[in-house]
Design goal:
695 residues, Immunoglobulin-like, Neutral Protease, domain 2, 5 domains, 8-stranded mixed beta sheet, 24% strand, disordered N terminus
């Protein structure tokens, strides 16, 4: 059955999901699911959802005392019944509610034995409004029900602490929606039945998959389809979008890039994918609280003002082409705790490789791509190794995404492209399903390289910090008319053992010498037939290292980190002030990041006059990437401060100016544009939490 796409998401965040455990013994699974049936009815006019989950399971042990499930605390649990349709009294764990999860314990009869079957029926309901900040909503013309760590709109059964296993029993979804909506799921519908103004769609997962991957179901009245079938004729790529919110010309280009990226990843990884369709639906409103969702060849993206005009910068930037990153997630490697950094780093590596491939004949563009990854990674605060298992939010985004990706880029530099291709083949051959360990990955790399790499993994994976390499040269004329170049490489901070390229050139010729640095200061001599006038170390950014100008940017970003992560205003202000002292004339064009951060701190401290001053200065300061967003965003925040002082009319004028400026480059200023339009239609309400946020 061919079903047109719409937008209504059922992407449950069931953790391991195939087994329950008794409260008194979580070390051993106590029950297994035989069947999970989810029935939901949506009333888009009332923004209401009614659900009923029926779970059949059998006990794996004698005398199981209870089972547990969790829901979002907003949900109203109507009844919980057993197989005889009798009500079951449950206990809610109030401690879990502090984690935005309401945990319920269902008591069982002590006489139940191993192999006995039981059934539980959970009825619940809730209304979801259309606020763009919510990860789930039900609107007049489109629907989104997303399940995340903080939002669980269907029952999540507590999982075994054993390693994750697949759900082997059938999982059925029956979704009743207004008939005006068109529907898509990541699997084909078994049937559809229309009764009056509603249609019920039935979907069944018959193969063994985790419940988290079972269903991706969408419904909308407004989406159009853009299809691209390229050289890889085994896959059909489709983009579903609202032409009133996504420029049709840009949609065509995005569909082409989706296909191109998928084909590149397939060729690079040598992995055969089961997907015959790759689909991306763009819905809802932009929100920094709602992430994109990827499952079984389907991507659910959030609308952005960046897509309202055909601005091709969203296609050329590895940071803005989110779909390129999310297509990479379809080519994941199974990981465990020791290789946690694979999870984000590998996807980012594949995406960076894609853009490097597209710019292979443009060395300057390739350097900018690598420098972009460096700038997203290098941060003074906080610093930790990849091996640490519980990174804070800033490290999750910067260190794991950036440094993880750079580990693979540097491996390719160290062992060579051909050897790295062998590593990639081995990974997908042996670890596409079973988790790769840190030791196994190192062994694969050493087998491909032919030499031990313990020094590499010891430093780059286990060690904190980053090196800074300083090159100094002295040139003398030899008796034979050549030139002797004495090159000294010095390292600041911790010592890193690494190969590095030294490039010696003039306007006519260029020579690259690869040396192996293993001391704090090391001298090398080269004999050249020409006089070098320009000498550079690692000009292509092959190594994850400090670049002097990025140290300045790191001060500004550290100011944000201290405020957002630790609510540490003293260190936040210190880092911002340090940046302004080091670059008093704003030669970098990044000064407005520091001023913006100081403005937010001033609001938190109750000094609105000082906050006004900082935001005004930031809004008029010349800015270069990646600081340009803060110019317009500072105007919006200045308007927010004026509203706090009772000056709504002045604030509205600033919001209108922000909209005018942001619409010139919506791909660059989409965050500011979203906020400015929001506060034009509704008054700003201040909260301390708001000012502690990043933007």
């Amino acid at each position: 059955m061919n079903i047109r796409i719409g937008y209504f998401l059922l992407a449950g965040f069931f953790a391991a999901t195939h087994a329950l455990f008794a409260q008194e013994d979580s070390s051993r699974a106590s029950a297994a699911i035989d069947e999970y049936v989810l029935r939901v009815t949506v009333n888009n006019g009332e923004h209401a959802l009614k659900g009923e989950a029926i779970v059949h399971l059998h006990l794996l042990r004698d005398s199981v005392q209870n089972i547990r499930f969790s829901m979002d605390p907003r949900m109203t649990i109507n009844t919980i019944r057993d197989a005889a349709d009798e009500k079951i009294k449950v206990a809610a764990d109030t401690a879990e509610q502090e984690k935005n999860i309401k945990e319920f314990t269902i008591p069982l009869n002590d006489s139940l034995k191993q192999g006995d079957s039981i059934a539980v029926k959970i009825s619940y309901e809730e209304a979801f409004d259309t606020l763009s900040s919510l990860p789930s909503f039900i609107g007049e013309r489109e629907l989104l029900l997303a399940s995340t760590d903080s939002t669980r709109w269907w029952p999540v059964l507590s999982a075994s602490t054993d390693p994750i296993h697949d759900q082997s029993a059938p999982v059925v979804l029956e979704a009743t929606l207004p008939s005006e909506f068109t529907v898509l799921s990541n699997i084909e519908a078994d049937s559809s039945h229309r009764a009056e103004s509603a249609t019920t769609w039935t979907f069944t997962q018959r193969r063994a998959v985790p419940l988290a991957s079972c269903f991706l179901l969408c419904a909308s009245m407004d989406l159009e389809e853009k299809v691209f079938e390229g050289a890889d004729t085994t896959v059909r790529v489709s983009l579903y979008y609202n032409p009133n919110r996504f420029a049709p010309d840009l949609a065509a280009a995005v569909a082409l890039q989706l296909d191109d990226a998928y084909s590149f990843y397939k060729a690079f990884t040598h992995r055969h994918q089961e997907f015959t369709n790759v689909r991306m639906a763009v819905v809802g409103a932009e929100s920094d609280q709602a992430d994109w969702l990827v499952t079984q060849g389907t991507i659910i993206a959030r609308n952005s003002y960046a897509y309202t005009v055909n601005d091709t910068t969203v296609l050329l930037s590895s940071e803005r082409s989110r779909w390129v990153h999310d297509v990479a997630r379809m080519f994941g490697i199974a990981v465990n705790d020791s290789t946690h950094w694979f999870d984000a780093g590998w996807f980012r590596y594949l995406a960076v490789k894609y853009f490097l491939h597209k710019t292979q004949n443009d060395p300057e563009a390739q350097r900018e791509i690598r420098l972009g990854v460096l700038s997203k990674t290098l941060d003074f605060y906080p610093t930790q190794s990849l091996r640490q298992e519980h990174p804070v939010a800033k490290n999750e985004r910067a260190l794991y995404n950036g440094k993880g990706a750079y580990i693979f880029l540097m491996l390719e530099y160290v062992i060579g492209e051909n050897a790295m291709n062998d590593v990639v083949r081995a990974l997908y051959k042996d670890f596409a399903e079973s988790p790769v360990t840190a030791g196994a990955f190192q062994q694969i790399c050493e087998d491909a390289y032919g030499s031990p790499l313990g020094w590499f993994f010891s430093e780059w994976v286990n060690q904190t910090g980053f090196p800074e390499l300083i090159l100094s040269t002295k040139v003398t004329l030899t008796n034979r008319g050549n030139y002797s170049v004495r090159a000294t490489v010095s390292q600041r901070g911790d010592l890193f053992i690494t190969p590095v390229d030294i490039v010696l050139s003039n306007d006519v010729r260029s020579v690259t010498k690869r040396v192996f640095v293993e001391r704090q200061e090391q001298e090398f001599e080269f004999i050249l037939p020409f006089l070098p006038t320009r000498n550079e170390i690692d000009p292509d950014y092959s190594l994850l290292r400090w670049v002097p100008r990025l140290r300045l940017l790191a001060h500004a970003r550290s100011s944000i980190s201290f405020r957002v992560i630790d609510h540490d205003l003293a260190n936040s202000e210190r880092e911002a002030t340090t940046f302004l002292q080091l670059d008093p004339n704003n030669l970098t064009g990044w000064g407005n990041i520091a001023l913006f951060s100081l403005g937010k701190s001033a609001v938190i401290k109750g000094d609105l006059q000082k906050a006004e001053e900082y935001f005004r200065r930031a809004s008029v300061l010349d800015a270069s990437e990646p600081a340009q967003l803060y110019s317009v965003l500072s105007l919006v925040r200045l308007g927010n401060v004026l509203e706090m002082e009772g000056k709504r009319d002045e604030a509205v004028a600033l919001y209108r100016l922000s909209v005018t400026l942001a619409k010139r480059r919506p791909a660059l200023y989409s965050i500011a544009l979203t906020d400015a339009l929001k506060y034009l239609s509704e008054k700003f309400v201040s909260s301390e939490d708001f000012w502690y946020k990043e933007y």
